[in-house]
Amino acid sequence: MPLRDLPRASGFRLGLFFLALFLATSAVVFGFIYWRTAVYLHGEVNAWLKRELAARVASGEAALRQTVEDRPRVDPAGRQPFVLFDAEGNWLAGNPASLPARLRLDRPFNFTLPRDDAPEPFRGIAHRLASGDIFLIAEDMRQITEFRDLLLGAMASGAALVLVIGLGGAAAVGAGAVSRIDAVTRAIERIVSGDLSERLPGGGTGGDLARLILVVNRMLDQIERLMREVKGVTEDIAHDLRTPLTRLLAGLERTQRRTVSAEQYALAVDEAIAETKGILATFNALLRIAEVESGARRAGFRTLDLSRVAADVAEFYEPLAEGKSISLSLERTGAPTQLEGDPSLLFEAIGNLVDNAIKFTPPGGRVAMRTLAGGGRVGVEVNDTGPGIANAEREAVLRRFYRGEKSRHEQGSGLGLSLVTAVARLHGLQLTIEDGMPGCRVTLRGDGVALRSAGQQIQIAEGA
């Protein structure tokens, strides 16, 4: 990864932000600890000075003088000197020392004394005796100063260590983020180049980027599916419309070459019109499927009664069933069958299934519709006593222009179930085909379709 790309990585910047925040917080915490430690140590020194001064003064001036005279022997290094000065500040007894120029009696103060040819910090307290002499008690502050410097050094070293580790962590996180972004970018470039089977690399099971990649890959799956369908539709149109167009052209050329009567011309025109209407019907069906798949009709969704839609379908197709001597029945459940959807699209989808059932059921057969409700399922079931659909063809019949061997002698373009599939996808439903024993049952099944009125989940089943 080029180093110039690292500062632009969001992970690196986020790592630096938290590193700066941590260092600022640590500085405040360590500063407070240092301040409280210094206050505590100075407070202990002040308390000792006041205790020693009070005890020595209370013992009497004679005992105090004796203690001061013995102090050089007790404390030869002079780390806790006891000194006695006269009223003019001249040394009388005790450890070698000089009285500070700016003296504050009975209050602790800081000053220096020469030790090993160098000034050392001391903190002391002075008291004027009844005789006029000045008694001084002091404490060497070198150990406290060294401890303070050691504490400051430890804090600085810790901050430097945290800074190094934090920068390393931020660089590692940033490098990982840049690496993932580069991999995603390369995958996108391959997709743009035309490889629609390419997918963005996941590279993990969590995080915002992983969730975004998951959604984008799902979108790419949908795009690839649609592109395959577009390619398939183009090929199917070229294949399935070639025959009627060839037949139309051949009929017109044949009529043009022959010398025929007006009645024969009229017959040829009627045949051409019929062929043209069939071609237009095919194109209209394709446009209808495209309109449904675009999702534009979702804006017209409302709460509807599926039993009422099924009843309208049964009423509409009853004359067609009677014309073929087929019994068409509808069994309606007493439970509510409300769902969210477009009534005209659901009517068209259920109607296509019923139309197929009537078309492929032999005379004297039966087509039974039944609405379902209960157990979180709401739907319509259509059974017929026709030849059914073989297992090997149950997925193929959902493709556009596909026509099985049993249906090639029947009129139609092979787009009915494709339209049903598009309507099902628009409503969040899934179309399945099952064996009706005898005949066929097609199920339109939807999980998690919300009801406005009942506030529950429904499923829709539908068959032919």
Q: Please count the helical segments.
A: 9
Question: Got a strand count?
Answer: 14
Q: How much helicity do the residues have?
A: 40-55%
CATH homologous superfamily identity of the largest domain: Histidine kinase-like ATPase, C-terminal domain
Count of domain modules: 3
Shape: rod-shaped
Given as residue ranges, the uncertain stretches (5+ residues, pLDDT < 50) are: 448-464
Head-to-tail CA distance between termini: 59 Å
Overall structural class, as computed from helix and strand content, comes to alpha+beta
Q: How many strands, what sense, and barrel or not for the largest sheet?
A: 5 strands, antiparallel
Strand content: 15-25%
How would the blueprint of this fold be written?
Elements: H1 10-58, H2 61-74, E1 82-85, E2 91-94, E3 109-115, E4 118-128, E5 134-140, H3 142-192, H4 208-240, H5 242-257, H6 262-293, E6 302-305, H7 306-323, E7 327-331, E8 338-341, H8 343-360, E9 366-374, E10 377-384, H9 416-426, E11 430-435, E12 440-445, E13 449-450, E14 457-458
Parallel strand pairs: 7-9
Antiparallel strand pairs: 1-2, 1-5, 3-4, 4-5, 6-8, 9-10, 10-12, 11-12, 13-14
Helix pairs in contact: 1-3, 5-6, 6-9, 7-8, 8-9
